[in-house]
Amino acid sequence: MSIPGEVTVAIVDDELPGLLGYLNRHGWQVEWSPLELRLAVTGRHPKDGVPVRIVAALDGYRALPPAWTFEDPTGGRGGASFFPRAGSIPDGRSSIFHGKGVICAPFNRLAYKTLGGPHGDWGGPEKWLEVNVPSQVRAIRLANMFAVILGHLTASPGMS
Amino acid sequence: MNQEHGGPPTVTVTVHEPSSPESMSFSWPQSKKVGEAAAEAAAAFGLSAEEPTFQNAAGEVLDRQKPLVAAGVRDGDVLDLVSAGGGV
Questions:
Q1: Fewest beta carbons within 10 Å, which of A75, A105, B56, B65?
Q2: Considering CB atoms only, which of A93, A138, A150 is closest to B50?
Q3: Is A19 helix (H, G, I), strand (E, B) or coil?
Q4: Does A113 contact B at CB distance below 8 Å?
Q5: What is the overall mean pLDDT for chain A?
Q6: pLDDT value, residue B55
């Protein structure tokens, strides 16, 4: 399923005020490129202070979830070579930072098996808004997604 | 910490729902569980979120089972509503 880029831009523009407010409260910065349909959020790992750049590729959003990845803003590394180590979060829940270098959450397109991810149990990424598994994260707006990522990043002992 | 008219000690906080620029103020007994308070806040924002919890200014996700005071919530704190779920 594809949707026009201008539709995605309008959706992201509508979500930006909430996202900006959240990022300001937590000391992170955002770059939004409507031409590339890419959102980049930069800050530092809460534990080890390593600079972190988290990118959301938003082509197709919200018919499809974003493709969230970590990039090293200082060295260009990405994927599993620059990815947070998993940490414990309350209630004994698992981290969303998968050992294969993928953010394992229904709001990440790259987590779906049809796109090379580990999850074949959520249906395809076009079903992402319907995925609601007890005890697993659920977020359907950019600010809520980033809040989940930051929460798990705060519990992470550091970058790999 | 507040203690109104001899009642149980309360804590007053500002809660944000991350996708909204708006915030709301709440006062709860310190002994109220994080998960119960977060569910009340989610309902006030018109959300039907399952298992909501709070995230503090340091980015930490608070344990839903703990009383607010034990989770470190203090008067004047600014909290965000987040999903308490994990990954796989």
A1: A75
A2: A138
A3: helix
A4: no
A5: 93
A6: 97
